[in-house]
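Attaching the record inline, Q. Sequence:
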Amino acid sequence: MTDGMPLAVAPSAVVDPPSLAFVLALHVRVGTPLEVGELPEGRRRIIPIIGGTFEGPGLKGTILPGGADWQILRSDGVAHIDARYTLQTDAGQLIYIRNSGVRHAPPDVMRRLVAGEAVNPQLVYFRTAPTFETSAPELKELTRALHIGSGERHPSEVVIRIWRLT
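Structure, as predicted:
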């Protein structure tokens, strides 16, 4: 300690990065986007979530209708994702998910994607940072870790694969 301040601890020479553990894949069925219009932040779109399924190791169920993705499409072509919806396991447990992220691609690909056309998912950067809430004790691990997702937008569904940082 010097002058009342603790001495800095030297970082180790090698720091292992976090690893990833697969958690689940979401197949989210979406409805026709509602075009709110141009706002100072960009173009607001609300995409209804009408159902779907999910599955992962020891976890399986349905996506309940009633959620939505409240997107902002910026003038530079980046879409800010803010999706909120509810999962129900086959055992009846409820899981609230908020999936925030970004999606972008070359302008011609984004135009086709926003128009609802099929595009090659490898041409699109689509990443999310989901958070979960549940009261089910056996699912609490979902609420105690950071997660990342990789998404694909298809004409009638969004597929998101989610991993836990370990």
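The chain has a mean pLDDT of 92. The chain has one domain: 20-165.

More tomorrow.
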